[in-house]
Design a protein that fits this description.
single chain; 406 residues; mainly alpha; Growth Hormone, Chain: A; 17 helices; globular; MFS_trans_sf; transmembrane helix
Length: 406
């Protein structure tokens, strides 16, 4: 009789339990952290419109949030590679707490620069949250990685409820300081996320891995990686481009803040709810097909927005935009997993996120000025340009997967 089998089975069962525990904790943290982003998107342009010296700068706080994401993706990856993902996660949650507290003070003092500083720290938090999906995939068996990745993203469904409802039920609690209590709540939610993340059990980085692997330039030249970056950029760029402008556009159209909050709530739910199935769809049909569907849905969302400017059209646009983002971004993230070896994962994943959010910054800065100068219809029409670029990339690049393991 072979007495090794029970030990191996026990070890395997322990690994599976640890994997499930990590995925659950990361999903809960994703829900709480997603509320941070939702609060910024729901309030950023409105508070900016109240505090900015000129209306053209109304969406600058949201753009600064995106800048914080872009600038901190590489440092977050480096911190995870050197000190472990959990340490990076806790640093990010701390930044989220600081963001809420600074925003609270900014509203009390009517300080536009201070509010921009708050959204920057919110972006730092969001940059760290981006790696939750990859952390879940890292601790799963290869055949379960797409599902683990999408399961964590599914936690964002609850962010779609937590964030907008937090704004709706707290924005008038501290008159005359609109949203002051909201930002206190934002800080509390980020602190709770840190408590959840403290229990995540991920392997410590191996010192030898920090200097191993191929040069990043070599990895970045892979057609599959280039395609993943392009699709990730376009999916997130357009989601941010349209979502940043939508609350202010609804305000310009005479619609209420409550309507904007509900629109964002359904948008965020639509962003994450498909994650319960996206991983299975990727496993069955491939990441490329899922990305193509996502880009098509984003195109439909812009077309619906051009049909009218009432509440129903805004909500339909935001909902379709959210579903399209889910398919496009998670599909692109699954492509990235095909492009690296285990010792290269932190660097490659953070490089992907840096390229995605560095490019997205441009769209975020443009959206406010375009909306103020040319209107909501122009913002929607311009969204078809990057969609065409992504379509050409899907057609033109080879779909042959690149080996990631030696």
């Amino acid at each position: 009789m072979n007495f090794n089998f029970p030990a191996l089975n026990l070890e395997a069962a322990t690994a599976v339990r640890r994997e499930r525990s990590n995925v659950v904790r990361l999903a809960v943290a994703q829900a709480l952290a997603g509320a941070n982003s939702t609060v910024v998107y729901a309030t950023g342009a409105v508070v900016g419109d109240m505090l900015a010296p000129t209306k053209a700068l109304a969406t600058l706080p949201v753009s600064v949030f995106v800048v914080g994401m872009a600038l901190c993706t590489l440092p977050a990856g480096a911190a995870a590679e050197r000190y472990g993902r959990r340490t990076a996660f806790l640093l990010g949650a701390g930044s989220g707490t600081v963001a809420g507290l600074i925003a609270f003070v900014a509203v009390l003092r009517a300080s536009f620069p201070l509010f921009c500083a708050a959204t920057f720290f919110g972006g730092v938090y969001a940059a760290v949250v981006l790696s939750f999906r990859f952390a879940a995939a890292d601790c799963a068996a290869p055949e379960r990685r797409p599902r683990a990745l999408s399961a964590v993203m599914a936690g964002g469904v609850f962010a779609g409820v937590i964030g907008p409802q937090l704004v709706t039920h707290t924005m008038n609690l501290w008159p005359p300081y609109l949203f002051a209590a909201t930002f206190v709540g934002q800080a509390v939610v980020a602190a709770l996320s840190a408590v959840i993340l403290a229990g995540v059990a991920l392997p410590r980085p191996i010192a030898a891995h920090r200097s191993a692997g191929r040069p990043l330039a070599s990895i970045a030249r892979q057609p599959r990686f280039i395609l993943a970056v392009i699709c990730g950029v376009v999916s997130y760029l357009l989601m941010n481009f349209l979502m940043t402008a939508a609350p202010l556009a609804m305000r310009f159209c005479g619609l209420s803040q409550e309507s904007a909050n509900l629109g964002l709530q359904w948008h965020v739910i639509a962003m994450y709810a498909p994650s319960f199935w996206t991983g299975r769809l990727i496993t069955r049909f491939g990441a490329t097909a899922v990305v193509a569907i996502g880009l098509a849905l984003i195109a439909v969302s812009s077309w619906v927005g051009l049909l009218g400017a009432d509440v129903a059209h805004f909500w339909a646009t935001l909902t379709l935009l959210g579903i399209g983002w889910n398919f496009g971004f998670i599909g692109a993230s699954a492509m990235v997993l095909e492009c690296h070896r285990p010792e290269e994962k932190a660097r490659v994943q953070s490089l992907n996120d840096f390229l995605v959010f560095g490019t997205m910054t441009v769209g975020s800065f443009l959206s406010g000025g375009l909306l103020s100068s040319f209107g909501w219809s122009t913002v929607l029409i311009l969204s078809f340009v990057p969609l065409l670029i992504a379509l050409l990339a899907l057609v033109g690049f080879s779909y042959r997967p690149t080996a990631r393991q030696s």
